[in-house]
Amino acid sequence: MFTGIVEELGEVVAVADLPDAARVTIAGPLVTSDAKHGDSISVNGVCLTVVDVAGGAFTADVMRETLTRSSLAKLAEGDKVNLERAAAVGQRLGGHIVQGHVDGTGVVLAREKAEHWEVVHIGLPPALARYVVEKGSITVDGVSLTVVAVSENEFSVSLIPTTLELTTLGRRAPGDHVNLEVDVLAKYVERLAAPHFEGVHPRADHRAEETR
Which of 5, 28, 133, 202 holds its CA 20 to 30 A away from the CA of 13? Predict the structure, then answer.
């Protein structure tokens, strides 16, 4: 589990194509300072498992499902990426609960600059729109953000100077793809509530059996 608070801006140093997968090596002195084989590191919001650590860089395998659902398929040597180590039990939850399981990608539509912040508009895939609400949480390229406004096909977020400087979101231009992870609580609520909206309680049949 992660919190969506980026620890370090890393750099891709190698990408190797594998059958139905890819192997990436990413430089990140901070996140690798205590990393070992099997640890989880979020890369642009995608939870990857460390397979090797050396010289301030780590290597991870990216399976086909991840390449299909996220923007990691477009990674190239020299690209900057947002990095975060898995949250430690007992630490402060600075952002929100982030699994590192990307739900899909959005496209940066526009940027509006203000004196002290910047508003970024991002295209919202129709399948994810119902999980995004005004003032709710969303993860964009691994960054925990608060939704400013939302419609059926886009949402906007405000970025403070720290986010603009220390994450990839300060570099994303209109047309760029970003990884999106909606609030997992919304998905669980929908799953649990669905039978009620369908007029069928998940335990109704069981209780009926008990009364016969």
Answer: 5
Residue 185 is predicted with a pLDDT of 87
Summarize the confidence of residues 169-188 as an average pLDDT.
93
Give me the CATH code for the 8-85 domain, please: 2.40.30.20
What does residue 15 show for φ and ψ, rounded to 5 degrees?
-135, 125
Quick one: what percent of the chain has pLDDT higher than 70?
93
In angstroms, the Cα distances linking 54 to 33, 58, 79, 100 are 10, 6, 19, 23
pLDDT at position 209 over 60? no
Q: Which residues contact 208 (CB under 8 A, 6 or more apart)?
A: none
Euclidean distance between the first and the last CA atom of the chain, given in angstroms as a whole number: 45
Residues facing residue 118 across a β-bridge: 113, 159
Length of the chain: 212
CA distance 132 to 121: 14
pTM value is 0.86
Q: Which pLDDT belongs to residue 207?
A: 40
Q: How far apart, in whole angstroms, are the C-alpha atoms of residue 121 and residue 99?
A: 23
The residues pairing with 105 across neighbouring beta strands, listed in sequence order, are 179
Dihedral of CA atoms 31, 120, 146, 79 in degrees, nearest 10, equals: -10
Under a CB-based contact definition with an 8 Å cutoff, are residues 15 and 76 in contact? Answer: yes
Domain 104-194: state its class: mainly beta
Same fold, 8-85 and 104-194: yes
Taking the domains of the chain in order of start, what are their residue ranges? 8-85, 104-194
